[in-house]
Structures are given as structure tokens and as C-alpha cells.
Amino acid sequence: MPRKILFIDEAHPVLEAGLQSMGFECCKDTQSPVERIEQYIHEYFGVVLRSRISLGRSFFDRATSLKFVAREGVGLEHIDVDYARRKGVVVLYSPEGSRDTVAEHTLALLLNLMNNLCRAGWQVRQGQWVRERNRGVELMGKTVGILGYGNMGSAFARRLKGFGVEVIAYDKYKTGYGDDNASEVPLEVLFEKSDVLSIHIPYSKVNHYFINGEFLQKFRKDIFLVNTARGLVLNTADLVASLKSGKVRGAALDVLEYEESSFDKFRLDQLPAGFEYLAGADNVVLSPHIAGWSFESKRKHGEVLARKIRESFGGQG
């Protein structure tokens, strides 16, 4: 009897084809809430999802035949990973799939921010030809500080080659990670030297509001800030205060702390005053959590997960 895999979100066809080539039977339920899925999850060997639902203890208690969860994407905050492992369930994910598009999007946000492209573009559309106020700031000669040097941070560092910048990186989870693209530095050096802060740390309880007002005030220079990681690692109210004071010269945000674990359910009409300020500030660039959202990354996520599932379970009968 074929081992059954449940797709809770739509994935690239390359993943389904890869699983079928390993002898898996692929089934889909991309609409039911988690409570409905829990009623029959005991029938399944594996689950593929993105972020539509959260998987907690109740889910894993009922998933008595489950061997793996494959998360198409980066963050695992909507999956109780520790409890899954206690239940013998392997949790796989695919950050490698979107590192290139996140790196490119981060660079695009930064260049947009430092050259006032969003503001200038809207002004031209409204019949305003404003040149002096939109004079840009060059990256050349600046120091870019990268917070978090995993898949995304290191890919961004590679994209900065050729811009004539110094790239430094701090990662509290690693040592010996410096390479030809970035120098490994302690946090104190990041504060001392950075002209730009690019955030690439995962969300976890210990990283909740890791970047707050106290953190931002430690930078010797006034900085440009880019966040393509997770919204809840950055305190929005403190960012707004730092924008108002000039400590943060401008911010480019692909993620916001107000997002739910399912990023597609975001409601722009139900947000607090902090967002109202960001939405109206002409030194803030916003995008709707799409840094990892390219056509190429969709396929790469499928390829990465198919490889990881094959390596772990492809030979099991």
C-alpha cells in the first residue's frame, strides 16, 4: 500500500512529481481548518505545508503514523518543532529555496530606500518634479552590517560585491562564519561601524523584539534599516520613535510584526497607529512579505524538499 502524503498548501508540481517517483501517494486538502485535518491525519506518512495553518500538540498527538512535516519555506514558528520531535516526527524546511530571491529583494529595498525611488516615482505621477529633496545616498564607501549570517544573510553579502562597501556580520548562533563576502564581528563592532543594518535572524521567543529602541540607540551612526526576516524581531513602536528622532534615517520593511502566522491573512485595515506612521512616512519603503516570493524560488523550494525527503525517507518501505 502506498505511503500517503498530505499537501495542506499548494506546492510546486516538481515536489509532487518527486514524491510520486519515490512511491508516495499524494493527496491534497488546501481548504480545511486544522481541526478537520486532525480527524484523519493518522492516515498519513507525511505532510507538506507552507503557513496556512499551525501545527501544535493536538495535531501531533493525532498524527500517529506521521514521519515527517515538510515546510515549504523558511520560518518554523507555526510548528511546535520540539513536540514534533518528541513524537518522532522529522521537521524539514527549505530556506535554501528562497535565499537568492530574498538577497535580491533586500538589495532592491535598500537601493530603493537610499535613492528615494518610491517617493520620487509617486511625485512624478502627481506632476511634481522634485530633484534636490530626492538626492540619493551612495552605497559606495559605506559599511553594511548584517544581523544573522545564515542562508539569507550570506546570500545578501554575496550580492553586495561590486558596490565598494565594507560588509560585516554578527550571528549569535555561530562562530567562524566569516568569509570572502563578510567579516565576522562582535555585536559591539556592528554598532560602531554600520551605516546600514540588514536583518536576517529567525523568529523565536528569544528573538522577540531583539531589535528595539535600546538596540537602535547603540549604533554610533544614524542608520538605514532593512528587514526581510520576520516582523516580530523588530519593535515597531521603537522603530517609529527612531525614525522620528533621525537615529534611523529610513527603513525598508518586507515584514511587519502585525502579521499572523499565516502571512496571507494580513489585514491592512485593522492595524495600530505604528503602521499608520510607517504608511505615511516618505522615508519608509514597504512590501507585502514577498522577499522570498519569486517564480524561481517556488520551484527551488519544491526541489529542496524533494531532495531532503528522498535522503531521509525515499528508501523506506
What does this 3D model show about the protein?
The chain is an alpha/beta fold. 34% of the residues lie in helices and 16% in strands. The protein has two domains: 3-97 and 296-313, 3-Layer(aba) Sandwich (Rossmann fold), CATH 3.40.50.720; 99-286, 3-Layer(aba) Sandwich (Rossmann fold), CATH 3.40.50. The chain has twelve helices and twelve strands. The chain has a seven-stranded parallel β-sheet, with helices on both faces. It has a five-stranded parallel β-sheet with strand order 2-1-3-4-5. The longest helix has 19 residues, at 295-313. The chain is elongated and about 65 Å long.
Number of strands: 12
What percentage of amino acids are in beta strands?
A: 15-25%
Total count of helical runs of at least 4 residues: 12
- CATH fold description of the largest domain: Rossmann fold
CATH class of the largest domain: Alpha Beta
Major sheet size, sense and barrel closure: 7 strands, parallel
Unreliable segments of 5+ consecutive residues: none
Shape category: elongated
